[in-house]
């Protein structure tokens, strides 16, 4: 199968413009799975709860979901993309999975980063994996990568591919994802954005780009520059994501010793 991600610079608040850019980038693309950045249609740096309320959408009936479902049906592909979700009086940093038959599900970001905590509720979905015709797809969002438990949960739940919509500003993720993939033997597609948002005085956010696709052996199959719009595409062989053996005597999942990991379950302050 072919999987990819689209790295670009979304314009804050300009949904129609951002959706059109994605449609244009996909016009002649040949792939089975596309991952788009976190908040790809809205931009990222919110300044108030009113802005969040104005730009957030219902997952089931919002403009962004309708667009992604339409693209999935038209192209016969699966898409994972991030958006601000409204659910009643709560707002979540979410990502949805769409396929040729429409909306398949939603993941709500577990680990909120910096000022996201001012506007969004922590996710309540847990780390979910969906069976699709092209493989088992799990989702985490941006800062989730910083917590190794996130990707391990997805791998233990059967993920073969981890879709990772992101708006990365810290420099560490591109170097860390090969290790995350190696220790879980899964593919990962990190779709980051580029550009700078300077909507809050004294708090500019410069996004680092460097989107990448990584194999279960920790190999970088494709990577993007730090400052260029890029559509990355790589071929994936999912058999390698099902094989958890290192040698005839070691299997990274069968060798786990959960009884020795008690400290992980303790929430420290």
Task: Kindly summarize this structure in a few lines.
Helix content is 23%, strand content 29%. It is an alpha/beta fold and 269 residues long. The protein has one domain (2-243): Carbon-nitrogen hydrolase (Nitrilase/N-carbamoyl-D-aminoacid amidohydrolase), CATH 3.60.110.10.
Describe this structure in words.
This protein is an alpha/beta fold and 269 residues long. It has a single domain (2-243), classed as Carbon-nitrogen hydrolase (Nitrilase/N-carbamoyl-D-aminoacid amidohydrolase, 4-Layer Sandwich), CATH 3.60.110.10. The protein is built from 7 helices and 16 strands. It has helices at residues 15-26, 49-55, 63-75, 116-119, 148-156, 173-184, 239-242, and strands at 2-7, 33-35, 78-87, 90-99, 102-108, 129-132, 135-139, 161-165, 187-191, 196-197, 205-206, 212-214, 220-223, 230-235, 245-247, 250-251. A 6-stranded mixed β-sheet has the order 5-4-3-2-1-14. A 6-stranded mixed β-sheet has the order 6-7-8-9-12-13, with helices on one face. A hairpin with a 2-residue loop joins strand 4 and strand 5. The protein is globular and about 55 Å long. The model has no long low-confidence stretch (mean pLDDT 97).
